[in-house]
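dumping this here before i forget
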Amino acid sequence: MTSATDPSTALTPFPDHTQLPESDGTFVKNFQEHPQSILLTDSIKPILEKRHPDGQYCIGQDSGIYWRITDPPEKGAEAPDWFYVGNVPPTLNGQTRRSYVLWREFIAPLIALEFVSGDGSEERDKTPWKGKFWIYEQVIRPPFYGIYEVNKASVEVYELIGGQYQLLTANERAHYPIHPLGVELGIWQGQYQNMELPWLRWWDLQGNLLLTGEERADRLTAQLRSLGVEPEA
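structure:
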């Protein structure tokens, strides 16, 4: 005796973020990468809140972007050190995102950033179906891709033009405008979280550095003291 099968239930559904590994088990590469991600997120948050008053955006920090189904699953993901996706909810069904799954949401990140810890060859690898550069350019397709090298105090920014990444030329401030966000990206030499380094940072399109919450508070304190007002502890 045979029974009818409902084709809609017989098909294996594409997995979602709760069914995919959120890590490949590797270590964070150095002590600078996590503070660098926090610095980028903290300083651009007021811009994103103004851009998305409904709160519909998400930021990934060393989080996986799944772009194809493989075995093991994590081989089908890239994990930019920092990326931003607009017009998507920050949580899914009340759950914190474990990863970003392209076949579930379709919207590509606007910008993906990689922090080089080796010689940079991995971030520039154009090998089809394997190289990071190729996967970002041909599959994930964020309009902007940045490669930041703290040891060289440099950042390369590529824009997706005509289906291929074109290396952008820095402006007169040595920054790279990201016009859809109304910001510039560049290198800032200074101290953050007790480390003096050439950090990757944001500026507005007029060249004003976007400050972290702590920097904004420190500036306000200095302004009050200049007026003879001692801030409350």
